[in-house]
Amino acid sequence: MTAVVVEKPHLLSIRPAPAEAPGAGEVLVRVRRAGICGSDLHIFHGTNPFAKYPRVIGHEFAGEIAAVGPGVAGFSLGDRVVVDPVVACGHCYPCRIGRPNVCANLEVMGVHRDGGFRDTLAVPAVNAIPVGDLPFEVAAMAEPFSIAANVLERTGGAHADDTVLIYGAGMIGLTVLLAARLEGARCIVTDVDDARLARAAELGAARVLNARRESVAEAMKTENDGLGPSLVIEAAGAPGLVDEAVKLASPAGRIGLLGFTPEPTPIVQQEIVRKELTIAGSRLNRHLLPRVVVWFKTRRIDPRGLVTQVFPAADAQAAFDLIQRDPGSTMKVQLDFA
Ligand code: MN
Ligand code: ZN
C-alpha cells in the first residue's frame, strides 16, 4: 500500500499506508486516479496556512468502493465514485444554512486531514459521489470543476446574455471558462502567459488578452454595448484585480473572487453602490460535485484535454518536479494508483 506524504515542507515521501477499515457512516475507497493541484504544491512548499505535517496530500481523487461501513446504504463493492474533499460538521451556522464549504469546523481532505494520495482511505459516505461508468481519469476532474461550479453559483450563473471576463488562464480559469460557456455566455480570458491564453482560445474563449501587452480596461470598452463585463471572475490571485474588476464591471454586474491573496487592496465603494455590484467570495464547493458529474456524463464538458501528464503514484516526486520545472507544459497532472 502506498501513500504520498509531505513529511514537512520540501520533503515528500512514498510511505507504506496502513489499511483502514470504514467506520459507521463511512465507505472505504480504493483510489485509482488523483489530480495534483496548486494547493498540494503549497503544502509541499510550506505555504498553505491550514496544513499540518506530516500530511497525506491530495483532494482530487476518484476510485471504487472497496468496503461499506455500518449504517451505509446505496453502495455496492466496485461502484465508481469521486470524493468530495469538503468535510463539514453539519451543526454550525454555515452548515445549517447549506454552506458547508465554509463550515466553522471545516476539514478538507489532504489539507486539514489526510487526503487521497494513497491506495485506500475511509471517507464519510456522503462525500462519495457515484459517477456511473465515467473513466477514473475523468471522474478525478470533478473536484477542480466544482470550484468553477461554485463561483458561478455564488454569482448567479453565467447565462447567454452575459459577457464574462475571467482573470487567469490557469487550471481554475479554464474550468470557469468551460462552465461559463455552457449556456452560451461570451467569455474573455486574460493572463500574462501566451501559451495559457492559446489554450483558453482553443477551449472557446471568444477573446483572449495578454495583460502584459494590452490594457484590459481599454479592451473592455467595446464589450457588452460599452458597459463592460456583466460577470467578472478573479482566478489569478493577484491583489489589485478586485479593484480593477469593480471599475470594469457593468451596472448590475457580479464579481466572483477565487484568489486567496492576503494583501489588502483599495476598492472604490462608490462604484460598487453606483452600479449596484454584487461581489462574492467563493471557496471550495458546496455539494456541487454531482452537478459536475452530470456535465461530464452528458459530455457537455469533456475534461480530458486538460489532463496533460499521468505518473505512477510512486513517482509523485517526479510529477512535482515537472510542475515546478516546466509549469507551461502542464495543466492537470494526475497520479495513477492502479
Ligand atoms: Mn484542487
Ligand atoms: Zn459546520
Specify the overall morphology: globular
Radius of gyration, whole Å = 20 Å
Tell me the total number of β-strands: 18
Percent strand: 25-35%
Q: Mind telling me which CATH architecture of the largest domain this is?
A: Alpha-Beta Complex
Task: Summarize the entry for a quick read.
The protein contains eleven helices and 18 strands.
3D structure, described in words:
There is one protein chain. This protein is an alpha/beta fold. The chain has 2 domains: 2-145 and 285-336, Quinone Oxidoreductase, Chain A, domain 1 (Alpha-Beta Complex), CATH 3.90.180.10; 156-281, Rossmann fold (3-Layer(aba) Sandwich). It has 11 helices and 18 strands. Strands 3, 5, 6, 9, 10, 17 and 18 form a 7-stranded mixed beta sheet that branches. A 6-stranded parallel beta sheet has the order 13-12-11-14-15-16, with helices on both faces. Strands 2-1-4 form a 3-stranded antiparallel beta sheet, with no helix packed on it. The longest helix is centred in the middle third of the chain and has 13 residues, at 142-154. It starts with a strand and ends with a strand. The mean pLDDT is 96.
